[in-house]
Amino acid sequence: MRGRAYHRFYLPVDIATSPTPRRTTLPTMTTSESISARIRAIRIAKGLSLSDVEAKSLRKIKAVVLGSYERGDRSLSISKAILIANFYGVPLSYLLEAPVTPSSVARLPVIDLRSLRAMSSNASRTGHVNLHLRTIITYISGIVALRNDWNGEILSMRSEDLTLLALAIGKTHDEVNEILIDNKLLLKIR
User: Fold this and answer.
1) What is the dihedral of CA 112, 116, 118, 119, to 10 degrees?
2) Interacting residues of 46 by C-beta distance below 8 A, sequence separation 6+
3) What is the pLDDT of residues 93-114, one digit of tens each?
4) CA–CA separation, 107 vs 163, rounded Å?
5) CA atoms in the 13 A half-sphere facing the CB of 92
6) pLDDT per residue as tens digits for the range 114-172
7) Count of beta carbons in the 10 Å neighbourhood of residue 157
8) Which of 41, 159, 170, 190 has its CA 20 to 30 A from that of 100?
9) Closest by CA position to 155, among listed 120, 115, 121
10) What is the pTM of this model?
């Protein structure tokens, strides 16, 4: 259909009049080859042969069948995937989710605490800072306090720091990084 898009419930939406959606990065699709490779990688990482798996699973997982799954010669049912995941002690999602690639990993900011202190003192004198920036300043100050990093001139954000900050202000990781860049609080992204 030209000029129309469908939202989650498949109702037509006119593209020309609907608001512009946020730019998002679509997750990488999981392929049967990647699932097969992950099943094999788990077995090898645990130091098990195909026959070891058959013996230790009390023949619930046959060596020939597992080998077929690993080569991608045989379709894997959900019940067999659950059985294999439970045997290896991994969540089913580990078998089924796409691997994390460097482009899908959040870029972590390194904050210039000197600029943050200067901005914070300016804000307290002028009383003018937008809400997102005030939240960022408060959040980063809290991280410094929790880590007892009072003498530092920089703060390396951790993945969970960035995730929680993005949730707190309703932005994506990249949008938080842009706010930090615009306000000259970012030294680099690692």
Assistant:
1) 130
2) 88
3) 888 876 554 444 456 788 888 8
4) 11
5) 8
6) 888 888 777 666 666 678 888 888 888 888 888 877 667 888 888 888 888 888 888 88
7) 25
8) 170
9) 115
10) 0.43
**pLDDT, tens digit, 9 for 90 and up, residues 30-45:** 788 889 988 998 898 8
Domains of the chain (ranges, CATH numbers): 32-96 (1.10.260.40), 109-189 (1.10.10.1930)
Report phi then psi at 7, rounded to 5.
Answer: -90, -170
Token pair of 39 as six digits: 């099943």
Instruction: Measure the CA–CA gap between 98 and 88, rounded to whole angstroms.
Output: 18
SS3 call for 11: coil
Distance of CA 131 to the CA centre of its chain: 26
Q: Which residue has the tokens 């960035």?
A: 162
Residues 104 and 24: their CA atoms lie apart, in Å, by: 11
Alpha-helix residue ranges (DSSP H) falling in 32-130 = 32-45, 50-56, 63-71, 78-88, 92-96, 113-126
Nearest to 161 by CA among 125, 108, 105, 112: 108
